[in-house]
Design goal:
heterodimer, A: 236 residues, alpha/beta, Rossmann fold, six-stranded parallel beta sheet, four-stranded antiparallel beta sheet, B: 109 residues, alpha+beta, five-stranded antiparallel beta sheet, 29% strand
Amino acid sequence: MHQDTLHALNEARHAGRAIVRAVDLATGEERLIDPSNPTSELERAAAAAARADRSEPVEIEGRSWFLSVHNPPLDLVLIGAVHIAQPLSQMAALAGYSVCIIDPRQAFATAARFPGMALSHDWPDEALARKPLGPRSALVALSHDPKFDDPGLAAALRSPCFYIGALGSKKSHAARLARLKAQGFTEDELKRIHGPVGLAIGARSPAEIAVSILAEMTLKLRADGGWERFAVRAQA
Amino acid sequence: MSGTADGDDVLDTAARWRGEGHKVALATVVKTWGSAPRPAGSQVAVRDDGAFIGSVSGGCVEGAVIEGAQDVMRTGRIKQLEFGVSDAEAWAVGLACGGRIEILVEALD
């Protein structure tokens, strides 16, 4: 690898831009590819690898390339600095997520309760307007309070984030869907919200519920289009 | 970790080492078969004095990779290494998990 390539690669990563490095396995020739705007066959393969979040070898026009995918980190936004947010934020950080907890109630979102986590005391819609959710983002509404949860969920529904979850019983979820429908969201759009949140693993304690939520997020992130099939099996 | 090359510290450290005047080589897992311990894209940066950061296997073959990296720093030519239990040499530096991995080693020039 040439030093200039490494510097450009590091610059893109630090700026939070997805970038793919292609290297010819026979000659060492290298290319840096912006996966957002593919034109050649190699660039299209790089874009596909970035979408799948998978570094992989490819054969193109008789040449063997290796595509190293450098995607921006995953991020998780939690609405509500409640008890479940404590184990969930820690577990998600271990799984590689950059975590932000949004709760306008300053007594809840404190550094003492969430050591080392990014905290925001803004209203969820304002916080998410400043730092929008992207395709590698997940949002979980945990507060049980519609005045915090609903604006967060609405922002998530308008974003390309890969996972939206909302804590609450079937009854409170039905009421939530009715409120969001009244705001103009369609039934298809509302299907993106996982509620009651998490895989059905019989979780009881906050930490176990956090496991079930993180498991469902992982399934959605990794199991591609087949995740519903997996989910059915997991809940059977 | 994600399938994203987990090179965050690795690539920053490689750039820093090069900036400090060291020779540096990068080793990248390019292909895996069976139950390989680290996915394709996993990287190690190796410095000319043998210091390294990152992992390509969970520890089983790093020693051989560092040797290969020092060759590459000398010659400047890329090199592919393959490790697996089917390989006779693997008894010395094999993968206990029974997987096979192919590693590309390049100098940072």
